[in-house]
Specification:
With 417 residues, this protein is α/β, with parallel strands linked by helices. The protein is 36% helix and 17% strand. The protein binds iron/sulfur cluster.
Length: 417
């Protein structure tokens, strides 16, 4: 039976696991063996680890939690995108999305159950925040997705089955797999998930300690060993923690900017009331970008809200002098969404205005929209929670909806200055 007070195995790297094994009276050399089973073979149950005796397996399970996330649903979109709903030990659920592209496979992970920030265009933001994810729950999404995608099977990523199920038949996915095998990237196995982006449910910088620990784990040689270039943290602009991304992790940074002026941004992103564009840009100009890195600017195109040429020019002014990549996201409508997607001609004009200034720009192809897996559409559909946890009362009071504030003030009267 799962003991949720135990430390989870997916939060360990080899040195911390050695120490833990020592503490429970087991030889520390087992640490490398155990992590080898988990990250090289995709086996997480100690009873199935062939060089671990059943006695030792039982002992391990007494002291360490080896339970993977529970998969509730797995949906395949027509374009090959896969969306999972995973259940956590306390009954909450989160979504994780895999996006295959010609030369990469990107996994979009969640960092919180829900989100407090209530960006008006975001489906996740409508559900409030239940709690932060732990580091192992973040790593667990990568592990489960890799497992489901066949990273450790003899025939990784059963494309034929995938195509049959999803009706997806483009050549580029075949090419992607072929290319990955050729490249090898210094690991023996073809890595199905080549890139990880923190763009799922939640604001990663509001859960910094766990996001930091999860990244440390994902990048460690004894686990998945991802390079810092392969991971991107996307923030809506939590200024206080932005510098940590560079100083602690060195991974890529994406900013959900979505509007170039305070008036528009505050209307669609309440966080702008706390950290406005001036403060955000000051933090970004101080951000020590590594060589040949750039900041990605996420810009969702909302019809008649932020999509004019004037907005494009203001954006250019804002990011002037910063190595930049602008990622334009045609808005993905969801049931009840208050905005419409900008029409194609408007999006094209906006893009051309950015491109003419010599800034790399891309219009993101919407992926997985038929299964609500596209950007901004994630929302734990089977989630029953409506309440806000005790973890962020102050934040909820600042940014939450009226009903969220009501709940929090009922729960925490006098405690949420
Ligand atoms: S866009 Fe991101 S930060 Fe904003 S509400 Fe949605 S999940 Fe939260």
């Amino acid at each position: 039976m799962e003991n949720t007070t135990q430390t989870h195995i997916l939060s360990f790297t080899v040195n911390s696991l050695k120490q833990k094994l020592k503490d429970i009276g087991m030889p520390s050399f087992r640490a490398g063996q155990i992590l080898g089973w988990i990250y090289d073979k995709g086996i997480i149950n100690p009873s199935e680890m062939k060089n671990i005796s059943q006695k030792d397996a039982e002992k391990l399970k007494q002291h360490i939690n080896f339970e993977p996330l529970t998969m509730v649903t797995e949906q395949l979109a027509k374009d090959g995108t896969v969306k999972w709903l995973f259940k956590l030990h306390d009954g909450h659920d989160i979504e994780t999305v895999f996006i295959p592209e010609p030369n990469r496979g990107t996994l979009c992970v969640s960092s919180q159950v829900g989100c407090t920030l209530n960006c008006r265009f975001c489906h996740t933001g409508t559900q409030g925040l239940a709690r932060n994810l732990t580091a192992d729950e973040i790593v667990g999404q990568v592990w489960m997705a890799a497992k489901r995608l066949g990273q450790w099977s003899d025939q990784p990523f059963n494309l034929k089955l995938h195509v049959e199920k999803s009706g997806f038949d483009d050549q580029w996915m075949l090419d992607m797999l072929a290319n990955q095998k050729e490249k090898g990237e210094g690991v023996e196995r073809a890595r199905i998930i080549s890139n990880i982006v923190f763009m799922g449910m939640g604001e990663p910088l509001f859960n910094w300690p766990n996001v930091e620990k999860a990244n440390d784990t994902l990048m460690h040689d004894s686990t998945f060993g991802y390079g810092s270039r392969k991971i991107t943290i996307s923030t809506s602009g939590m200024v206080d923690n932005i510098g940590n991304i560079a100083s602690s992790l060195g991974v890529n940074l994406a900013i959900s900017i979505h509007a170039p002026d305070n008036e528009t941004r505050t209307k669609i992103m309440p966080i702008n009331k706390k950290w406005d564009i001036d403060e955000l840009m000051a933090a970004l100009r101080a951000f020590p970008l590594k060589e040949r890195r750039r900041i990605t600017w996420e810009y969702v195109m909302l019809k008649d809200v932020n999509d004019s040429v004037k907005h494009a020019k203001m954006l250019l002014k804002l990011i002037e002098g910063i190595p930049s990549f602008v990622n334009i996201i045609p808005f993905n409508e969801w049931p009840g969404s208050p905005f419409k997607r900008s029409d194609s001609a408007t999006i094209e004009t906006f893009k051309n205005t950015i491109a003419k200034a010599g800034i790399d720009v891309n219009v993101r192809r919407s992926r997985g929209s038929d299964i609500l897996a596209a950007c901004g559409q994630l929302r734990g559909e089977t989630s029953k929670f409506n309440s806000i946890s005790t973890e962020f009362p102050t934040v909820v009071m600042q940014y939450g909806t009226d009903s969220q504030k009501q709940k929090i003030s009922v729960q925490f009267t006098g405690d949420v200055a």
